[in-house]
Amino acid sequence: MFLSIDPSSGFPVYRQIMEQVQRMIVAGRLRVGEKLPSMRDLAATLQINPLTVGKAYTELERRGIVEMRRGLGMYVRPLDGRAAKQADDVPASLTAGAQRFVLEAAQAGLSRAHALKVVDEAWQALVTPPAKGDRPGTLEGFPGPAATASLGKVHLGKRVRR
């Protein structure tokens, strides 16, 4: 599991965190009752201001996606109908990124098949299988090992720089 934070995307970092947590919950990578990393730990790992993580967590709590347990931290809540619909929506940043990619691929003369192959190769390079013995979709062992690929790739919340 990884978070990918891109400070140069023009999309607020707190929203990037929110959308990725929502997607991980919908995909089953974060389960109901599972504890999220503390605001301080995640902020330190991502090298961002703790208030940014706090803003993301507060908004997720307001939407009913996570709950604060005083003295214990943030935990994933069961998705009610409204929260499930919000989590199922394709984030605007993802749609915009896909449109940019399609436009650039078409301008470069790539066929649809070739563009899909590029996406598949990128997917394979970024989505690594869990280490032997790890339960997929958990934050056990947080912050975990760093990835070795591109700037902004984060495994278990750890930012990697080139």
Helix content: 40-55%
- How many strands? 5
Query: CATH H-level name... which superfamily?
Result: Winged helix-like DNA-binding domain superfamily/Winged helix DNA-binding domain
Strand content: 5-15%
Terminal Cα span: 20 Å
* CATH architecture field: Orthogonal Bundle
Low-confidence runs (pLDDT<50, min 5 residues)? Answer: 134-162
Number of domains: 1
Output the structural class. mainly alpha
Number of helices: 6
Give the topology string: H per helix, E per strand. EHHHEEHHHEE
CATH third-tier fold name? Arc Repressor Mutant, subunit A
What's the rounded overall pLDDT mean?
A: 76
**How does the overall form come out from the CA principal axes?**
elongated
Main β-sheet, spatial strand arrangement: 1-4-5
The biggest beta sheet is recorded as: 3 strands, antiparallel
3D architecture notes:
- This protein has six helices and five strands.
- The protein has helices at 13-26, 39-46, 50-62, 81-88, 92-107, 112-126, and strands spanning 2-4, 66-69, 73-76, 153-155, 158-159.
- Strands 1-4-5 form a three-stranded antiparallel β-sheet. Strands 2-3 form a two-stranded antiparallel ribbon.
- The model is unreliable at 134-162 (pLDDT under 50).
Topology at a glance:
Layout: E1 2-4, H1 13-26, H2 39-46, H3 50-62, E2 66-69, E3 73-76, H4 81-88, H5 92-107, H6 112-126, E4 153-155, E5 158-159
Summarize this structure as a short list of keywords or feature phrases.
162 residues; mainly alpha; Arc Repressor Mutant, subunit A; three-stranded antiparallel β-sheet; two-stranded antiparallel ribbon; 6 helices; 5 strands; 10% strand; elongated; disordered C terminus
